[in-house]
Amino acid sequence: MSSSALKFIKSLGPGLLFAGAAIGVSHLVQSTRAGADFGFGLLWALLLVNLFKYPFFQYGPRYARVTGESLIDGYAKLGKGVLFTYFILTFLTMFTIQAAVTIVTAGLAYNLFGITTDLNIWVIIITGISLLILLLGKYKFLDNLMKVIIVVLTISTVAAVMLALKDHSDKISFKQILPEGSAGTAFLIAFLGWMPAPLDVSVWHSLWSVEKGKDTDEEISIKRSLFDFKIGYVTTIFLGICFMALGTFVMFHSGQQFSAGASKFASELISLYTSSLGKDTAIFISLAAFTTMFSTTITTLDASPRSMARTTELLSGKSSGKFYLFWIFLLAAGTIVILSFFITNMKSMVKLATILSFLTAPFFAIINFILINSKHTPEKYRPGMGLKVLSYLGIVFLIGFSIWYLINL
Fold it and tell me: What is the CA 77 to chain-centroid distance, rounded?
C-alpha cells in the first residue's frame, strides 16, 4: 500500500465519530416512530433537513482544518457576546440532550441485561460507567468498538428492511404529508431537531478535527477531512431512511404504536428486527443497539463538558484542566437528577430535548455561516457560491419552521 493511501486511511475518523454521535436517538427512536406513525409521509422532512443542515455541519471540520482551531475559538473572535450566547444555549440544552440519550440507553440495557426493572438504577449505572471510562482515558477503545458496532447495526438494519419489504403485502405509498394539530407539529419539529443530529455537534466535530489534524499537512488534509465528513453524513442519511422504512413496513397501519416508556420501547424496537430476522437474532440486535446508544451516551457526556470547558477558558482568560472535571461531574449529576425526580417518560424527554435543539439551530447556522465567511477564515477556503446559496436557504428553513412551531403551540 502506498504512503499516500496510508495517510488517507489515517486521516479518516472525525466523520465516523460524527456518524457515531448522530446514529442514536434520531435514528433508533425518531425515524422508526416517523415510519410507524406516518409511513413514508415524512420522507420529505428527513431529506430536506439533512440537505439544509449540511453546510453548517460541514463548516465545523472545514474551519478546524484551515485554522487549526475549533469553532469555539472562532466564536470568541466574533466577540464575547457570541461566545457567551453559545455558553448559555449549550448550558440550557446539554442536560436535556444527555438525559434523552441516557434514558434510551437505560431502556436498552434493561431489555438486554434484565437484573432490575428500575430505570433510575440503570441511569445511575450507565452514567457512572461512562464517567469512569472517560476519566480513566479508556474512551479510545470504545470509540474503535463503536465504529465496528455501527457497521454491524447498518448491515442488520439493511437486512431487516429487505426481509420486511419481502413480507410486506400492502401497497407502499410515498404520499408526503404535513402533520396537523399540536401533537403532529410537535413531533415534526422534534423529528427535525435531531435529524441527523443537533447542530451544536458541528462544534464537537471541529474539536475532533483539531485533534486529528495536529500532525497532518493542512493543504492535503482539508480535502480528506471534508471527504471523511461526507462519508459519515451520507451514512446517517441512508440509515435514517432505513429506520423509517423499518417502522413503515412493520408497524404502519398495523394498529400498533411505540410505547412512551423506555424499557417497553426498547423491547418493541428489538421486535422490529426479530420479526424479520428471526427470534434467534434478538441478543445480537439488542447488543448492537445498546452499544450504539451507549457509545452515543459517552460521546455526549464527553463532548458537552469539553465544549463548556473551552468556552469557560476563553471567557475567563484562564486555562485549567479542572474546568472539564467541573462540567463533566455537573452534567452527570444533573442528568441523574432530571431522570430520577422530574421526567421518567422517555417520549417526553426525547421530545423536549429535540425541540430545544431545533429552536436553537438557527443560532448555530447563522454563526457558523458568518464565521466561515469572515476574515478569520482564509479566503481560498471559504465556501463557494453554491454552498452559500444552500446556507441561506437552510437558515430560512430553520427559522421558518421554528416560527411555525411557536405559532402552532
Answer: 27
Contact yes or no for 36/256 (Cβ under 8 A):
yes
Residue 256: predicted pLDDT: 67
Cβ burial, residue 92 (10 Å; 0-12/13-18/19+): exposed
Question: Would you say 67 and 379 are in contact if contact means Cβ atoms under 8 Å apart?
Answer: no
pLDDT, tens digit, for every residue of 184-221?
888 888 888 888 888 988 998 888 777 765 555 544 46
229 within 8 A of 49, measured Cβ to Cβ: no
Predicted pLDDT of residue 5: 44
Q: Residue 382: left (phi > 0), alpha (psi -120 to 50), or beta?
A: beta
The answer on pLDDT for 50 being more than 80 is yes
How many residues does the structure list for the chain? 409
What pLDDT shows up at residue 193? 85
- Name the residue type at position 88: I
Q: Parse the chain into domains and list their residue ranges.
A: 17-168+179-407
| Region for 378 from its dihedrals, namely left if φ exceeds 0, alpha if ψ lies in -120 to 50, beta otherwise | beta
- Distance of alpha carbon 225 from alpha carbon 59, whole angstroms: 11
Fold adopted by 17-168+179-407: Amino acid/polyamine transporter I (1.20.1740)
Weakest-pLDDT range from 23-37, 47-61, 281-295, 325-339: 281-295
Residue pair 21/199 in contact (Cβ under 8 Å)? The answer is: no
**Taking a C-beta distance cutoff of 8 angstroms, is the pair 70, 311 a contact?**
no
Cα 288 to the center of its chain, rounded Å? 17
